[in-house]
Amino acid sequence: MTAHTPPVPPFRDRRLPFAKRVDDLLSRLTLDEKIGFLHQYAPAVERLGIDAFRTGQEALHGVAWMGPATVFPQAVGLGATWNTDLVRRVGEAVSKEVRAMRARDDRVGLNVWAPTVNLLRHPLWGRNEEGYSEDPRLTSAIATAYTRGLRGDHPTYWRTAPVLKHWLAHNNETGRDVTSSSVRPRVLHEYDLRAFRETVEAGAVAGVMPAYNLVNGRPNHLSPYLREHLRTWTDEDLLVCSDAGAPSNLVDSEHYFDTHEEATAAALLAGVDSFTDHGTDSSKITARVRGALDKGLLTEADIDAAVRRQLSVRFRLGEFDPEHDPYALTTDFDTPAHRALAQEAAEQAVVLLKNDGGLLPLAPDTRLAVVGPLADECKLDWYSGTLLHRRTPLEGLRERFGPERVRFAEGVDRILLKTSAGTFLHVPETDADDKVRGAEGALDPALLAGRTDLPPLTTDATGTELSLIDWGGGVLTLRAPDGRYLSVAEDGLVRASADQPGGWIVQETFRLEPHGDGHLLRHIGTGHPVSVAAEGVKAADGNGEVFEVVVVESGEDAVSRVAAQADVVLVVGGNDPHINGRETEDRSTLALPGHQERLLRAARRANPNTVLALVSAYPYAVDHGEVPALLWTAHGGQAAGSALARILAGDVSPAGRLPQTWYADDSDLPDLLDYDVIGGRQTYLYFEGTPLFPFGHGLSYASFSYADLTTRVEDGTLHVTFTVRNTGDITADEVAQLYTRATEPWVPRPRRELAAHRRVTLAPGEATEIAFRVPLSAFAFWDVARGRQRVAPGLHEILVGASSEDIRLVGTVDLNGEPSAPRPVMVGGLEAVDFDDQSDTEIVDRAKTSGDSVSPVAGREGELVFRDCDFGKGAAGIAVEAAGEGAVELSLGGGPVLTVLTLSPGTAGPYDYTTVSAPVVVAGGVHDVRLGLRGPVRLARVTFSG
């Protein structure tokens, strides 16, 4: 007898297109199996030989949360490189490490949640470190490069499947799951959507993740823009993964729905395909889906649509063709090439902000004093992997200049904490075996943080000298002499048990609060004061111990001492990415922490040759008037210190450029929740003040000249060429930037807007011609009167230079765009959201599924302005579609109120719209229409009749 080989099911037949294979597999799944796929942790289907699958692997600047991996600079640092080729190579390296790590640990997922393309609109956003830039074009260029690296270059199979975060208009942590971003159509289309759109259209994106916040009154997990915009930008099936816990927020914190069945159904219908909720426990989500089906809120076809998009991504990842997956045997992990790339990226991210008198680069025989709280630190953030290698600035400089030429003072206060009984806090000795160390001697935070087997602090007659690090805002950390930070574990006992502050709730931060003749030491993570108990020092309920702070040596004295003995002082300041600004916590000020300001002044008093290096996840408003040299870099990952040392030594000329505006003062900033970048004159696009340092700014050790600008328009494209020459005496990079500006705009337009950029390397005397091709669509704005993009005719300036304010060449082009025309309001009426200007209003949801209305800000009287409205031969009546209570007032231009339309008080809900009409006399011709919103009215639409 001859054995028969069972036929290969179509979903296993690689000769078929993916779409047919997905359809076949979908038809073989039971309803329960498909429902199971909707949770982040999709179970295996053993009868079909299908493995379990998890959406979500953090990979923002290296593989995160899965142990040791190559750690690259923070995303904002990658943005500061302005180098798309470099960022593509970083993405490629990260995706190779994802594959290599998955080969030995199947918990590592191939659906990577990166990059973050939220625009850095507001520099106080706690997650500033995660974005690339305040500019949508630069953001999309860097994000596109990173996703291309993550995806790989095989025409069929993907190395990893990148998901963009966080859809949409998400730029605050304060109340992030309950606050609504009011985003008018022009801001939506010209700003917030653009970074997502251009990245998706580039073809290397597998999906997006909605943000926690609401937009125009509607949770992002119900965003109609997923259907109306996102899914129209590509022919690929895009996977939409919820953010963690956000599906439950629809009921629990946002109270947008009464039941979880309603909420889950609405999110699925809006386009959410994978629900990240309740950790690994999928039972709650699957029960909600089943309940929604039973209530008729969903159909099996709705579930099929979501599962189909999931399967599409899994097929592209090669899951069903393992023998043909070109990336299945990837082993590249912590290779010499990856280490060199981390070094290169860290070097390219350094921005030289100021260099008066040519203090930098440092001479080889410089005697250097290195001071400051970040001088001997290599900080990680929430989305970092565990360091395999690390170089702090101090280590890098000692390696580069020699240890005998580099003196160090951390500049933190050394203190003893004395109890009311006259004893002192004491850190017990720890056996060597308990000091778990990782690569290069670093204490391993993954093995130390939260440990309860180490001895807690006690008290004795002499005490242990602690380092007090003041991070500003009254927040401090305390460190034992061996480098371990004081931390509080689940049992409440205080131990020296952390390499760095970290964790979802940071357990290493404290406050010293004046109390009587001393201070309470309050643990911020628990809110409890520290007391001395029989079992050891503890953070617990009660009155707490009143401590006397005995200063053994002040940080300022230590800095002054070493600074006076050096040729040059390097003050290394900045932030810890887990303190005073991080996910869940916005910053409160641009100011540098007061302690660091005092250290800077002490260094400057002792030595005028003082260089300030800021290592931070965001901009500062720093008083640099008496500091001759200033640099900034984001936290640079494993090679941060050696990169900074090579820049300071002149081995590499700095060429990083600021990816966002550095403002001079908090008063320059809009309200954190004001998302109207146009009306609020925000970012370099609209800001009319004088920044501390402008967008695109960065100096070099070389000098560059620009010449020979030519411009022409041909076949719908602007062609720009110019020449850049290195007029200095060292090889260096220059970042040439092209901006555009409408000279006589019909509506408020950017002061200037980045159209293209290129980073080039030039030897001394070398010149290169740079050619940019800019589609004329880049000149378009969203015309609210037409509800679409439009290029206006007229003159536009072409600005070429080294930053948004350092313009070297100027040309003009005269575009044959589409001329403006008055709004035909007698025909189309007015959508309330399509205003030209407003005051004291916010956009709200017209219905739970789609549409926008406008309402006055609570307790204020709002106003909407619609310009150039064509009334033809005149109007005799007006009607408003509105909900709620209150009134709508109509006036023309600056004239008197012509009529008031009042909604009757009642019990109707916010989505129960009614039409109220009234007679009115409006003369023919073109007028500006003003609508006053009085009381809690929700205005959707206005129409006029003849």
TrEMBL record:
Record GO terms (molecular function): alpha-L-arabinofuranosidase activity; carbohydrate binding; xylan 1,4-beta-xylosidase activity
Keyword Signal included in the entry's annotation = yes
Q: Does the keyword Hydrolase apply?
A: yes
Task: Give residue ranges for domain CBM6.
Answer: 828-945
GO BP terms: arabinan catabolic process; xylan catabolic process
Q: Which Gene3D superfamilies match?
A: 2.60.120.380, Galactose-binding domain-like (2.60.120.260), Glycoside hydrolase family 3 C-terminal domain (3.40.50.1700), Glycoside hydrolase, family 3, N-terminal domain (3.20.20.300), Immunoglobulins (2.60.40.10)
Q: What single Pfam family name could you report for this chain, choosing any that match?
A: Glyco_hydro_3
Q: Which domain of life is it from?
A: Bacteria
Q: Spell out the InterPro entries in the cross-references.
A: Actin-crosslinking, BXL, CBM6, Cellulose-bd_IV, Fn3-like, Galactose-bd-like_sf, GH, Glyco_hydro_3_C
Keywords, in A-Z order:
Hydrolase, Signal
Q: Which family does it belong to?
A: Belongs to the glycosyl hydrolase 3 family.
What is the protein's given name?
Sugar hydrolase
